[in-house]
From TrEMBL:
The lineage of its organism: Bacteria, Bacillati, Bacillota, Bacilli, Bacillales. This is histidine kinase. It is found in: Cell membrane. GO terms for cellular component: plasma membrane. Its EC number is 2.7.13.3. Pfam families: HAMP (PF00672), HATPase_c (PF02518), HisKA (PF00512). Residues 191-243 form the HAMP domain.
Length: 472
């Protein structure tokens, strides 16, 4: 007995479908067999009865006598084996029969009325006197063009019905055997489906309890295989995500501790007194610098949180990308000078490049990209900011000649919390935030890199349409 569940449903559905199909087939088969037998008997008798009609059709022979000898001759000439032959008058009265039993009641079945209208009549029913199932076939006898008499053949259908009953029982037995085979087959099929489902369910239950080291084992086909692969991939991604978060917590703790240590140290030092104005100024500058660094870290995490919760609000206006890039260069100029990195703007356009967007957020994107380029570039290298238009797009490329990114890391570099170099500082959120900000502007951001050669970040933003340009 199959317990409640999908297995029982599979078996039940298979069984119902096969049972209904088999039932319809057997009904059609038995109906066809019955029709074949009944029609065979009727055709045999009807063909014989037609000879009577043809023999007496429009007969005008003077020697035909309507007496006992005449009817006896009909009985003897046109009789059939195992079939009663009756000669009736127009009113259904039996004039003569080859049966030892003769009813006094007139015949009133439908085959008589059909025969009197020049047709061969047929009737199937129970004989009133015996209760036996019979078939009667009637044909008219014409004398001088008039239907004066009717010959009526009556044959018992009990032997045929007995054969049909045996065939029905045999068909039912075959049906039962087929249903038993289908039941066994469907149970096997159900087990082949339910077993891997139970395995997947058991593994998922362990994952729900926090055990992400378990995996669905076994090679399953089709949708079950895809489900198992998806579950394993989910567990793998959760483990990877947890590791990234652990790394992020470790990294952000270090990032927060460093400026806090500097602020605390200089605060205590300045509080103790005894410093000249120049030293006090240096201490205050360090405190201000570290405070700005803390504010930047917090703002970066707040921005990421807003993006994740779809709470980032953009102030959309007409933005000149060239001005944004020039401001970006000015903001990072001092940092680039410390590593003797040359930053150059390559302008391939003849006019202003206007895009719809939030100027502050777009500046945040390019500041992050250029800052990363500076961070991972060697001394005495260069960074190019390339701007051009193509069709309906404004394209900005940040190209550096830095250390580059390996193919393995390039696939994950835009993931949240991911850092190629944990010693480089930061939260690992910069590129993830930049990617989402570009997408909020209906743009695209792609990265190409070669280890030891450099990295190119391609940002595509939709141009401001002509109507908005005119309005601006």
């Amino acid at each position: 007995m199959i317990s409640k569940g999908i297995g029982r449903q599979i078996v039940l559905h298979y069984f119902i479908v096969v049972f209904v199909t088999l039932l319809l087939v057997e009904i059609i088969f038995l109906f066809a067999i019955r029709t074949y037998y009944y029609d065979s008997i009727y055709n045999h008798i009807a063909n014989h009865a037609a000879l009577v009609t043809d023999n007496f059709q429009n007969s005008d022979k003077s020697e035909v006598q309507e007496d006992k000898a005449f009817f006896t001759n009909i009985i003897s000439v046109f009789s059939l084996a195992n079939t009663e032959l009756q000669v009736l008058d127009r009113h259904g009265n039996i004039i003569m029969t080859n049966s030892s039993f003769q009813s006094d009641r007139p015949v009133q079945t439908s085959d008589l009325s059909q025969a009197l209208t020049n047709n061969i009549g047929k009737w199937i029913g129970r004989e009133p006197d015996t209760g036996e199932m019979v078939m009667s076939v009637s044909s008219p006898i014409q004398l001088l063009g008039e239907n004066k008499y009717v010959i009526r053949y009556i044959t018992s259908m009990e032997p045929i019905n007995s054969k049909l009953l045996n065939i029905t029982l045999l068909a039912a037995l075959v049906g039962v055997v087929i249903l038993a085979v289908v039941l066994l087959f469907s149970m096997g099929l159900a087990n082949s489906i339910v077993k891997p489902i139970n395995n997947i369910r058991a593994v998922s239950a362990q994952m729900a309890r926090g055990r992400f080291d378990v995996r669905v084992k076994g090679e399953y086909k089709y949708e079950l295989g895809e489900l198992a692969s998806t579950l394993n991939y989910m567990a793998q991604e959760i483990v990877r995500g947890n590791q990234i978060k652990d790394d992020f917590i470790s990294s952000i703790s270090h990032e927060l501790r460093t400026p806090l240590t500097g602020i605390k140290g200089w605060s205590e030092t300045l509080t103790s007194g005894g410093f000249d104005p120049e030293e006090t100024k240096i201490g205050m500058q360090i405190i201000a610098k570290e405070t700005d660094r803390l504010i930047g870290l917090v703002e970066e995490m707040l921005d990421f949180s807003k993006l994740q919760q779809n709470e980032m609000k953009l102030v959309i206006a007409s933005v000149n990308l060239k001005e944004i890039l020039q401001e970006t260069m000015l903001n990072v100029w001092a940092k680039a000078e410390q590593k003797r990195i040359q930053i150059k703007l390559d302008d391939h356009t003849e006019s202003a490049v206007m895009v719809p967007g939030d100027g502050n957020r777009l500046k945040q994107v390019f500041l992050n990209l250029v800052d990363n380029a500076i961070k991972f570039s060697t001394e005495d290298s260069w960074i190019h900011l390339d701007i051009r238009t193509q069709d309906e797009w404004a394209i900005v490329e940040v190209i550096d000649s830095g250390i580059g990114i390996s193919e393995e890391h390039l696939r994950r570099v835009k993931d949240r919390f991911f850092q190629v170099n944990h010693q480089g500082g930061g939260t690992g959120l910069g590129l993830a935030i930049s990617q989402q900000l570009v997408e909020l502007h209906n743009g695209e951001m792609e990265m190409r890199s070669e280890l030891g050669v450099g990295t190119t970040v391609n940002v595509r933003l939709p141009l401001l349409d002509e109507l908005n340009k005119n309005d601006a």
